[in-house]
Batch of 2 targets.
Target 1
Amino acid sequence: HAGLRLPNGDTINTWTSASFFLYASDFSAENITFQNDAGFTAGQAVAIFANGDRLKFTNCRFIGFQDVLFASGPSSRQYYKNCYIEGTTDFIFGPATAVFQSCHIHGKKKSHVTAASTPREVKYGFVFFDCKLTGDEGLKGVSLGRPWTPYASVTYIRCSLGDHIADTGWNNWRNPANESTARYAEYGSTGPGANDAARFRWIHILTDEEARKYTLKSIFLDWNPETK
């Protein structure tokens, strides 16, 4: 985890703390658990650092605490289907374009689900389709995301949100300027954590027409992760 000193004198940071490093394109994984068990108070402790194009994960588990799934690479395209992702702070983060289809996302701390760092020129960051968000018993006040960089892009479409999600939904990372640049949106949220009326005014609630534009083809262009 971050802060540990290596034998050569280097100090581990977020980028070097992963249990599993992936530097390859056209990679797929199925039925695999990626886990970092450094602990609740260890700080940044990445389970997977994924940097490559056309990465596909099916029925996988990503388990840790802070900074679990590092979707890295500003031009990287990543697809997660029927996966389980569990963590505390910013546990899905990075600059990649990533789609999460029918995933179960479980929070363990009053903190933030995502911390996207989408480049300004990249249209789609993290897109969650038909996902289920749950939290530890009694957990409240969790945000759907905060912007690691100003133009962070995160969209939740038809997701079930547990009562651990804050009514306001999101967080500006203590910087009001991010409210005019971050690209945060929801559509068809359900469950006790869904509250369009109480969301911050800078959050975009998609219209039916806008939501229809979110397809694998529009997000991934010439890559269809649903084909073999």
Target 2
Amino acid sequence: MKKILQEQVVAYKALNDVTRIKILQMLKLRSMYTNEILDEFNITQPTLSYHMKILSSANLVDTKKVGRNVYYCLNRKTINHLIDFLSQIVKVDGEQCKDLNCSK
């Protein structure tokens, strides 16, 4: 359980950047090569590599080397696990919520 929580912390930290969020939004539409992602941003190749390393280390994206190029795709399994985890956090027992006078 502790390992799973640590992996989720790494993933949520990776989401703490506008550029990385935008990259994930692009990859949800289709998998892309490094140069295709670069064309969409005003950043250098080393900066993109930095962001992709963080996303890859968090298992939010998968990579595939094709010749000299790197192909990136969204890791939907990891993202779905994060969504499920957050869903469990916000689920509240109706009686408990009523007792605490909190919103559902």
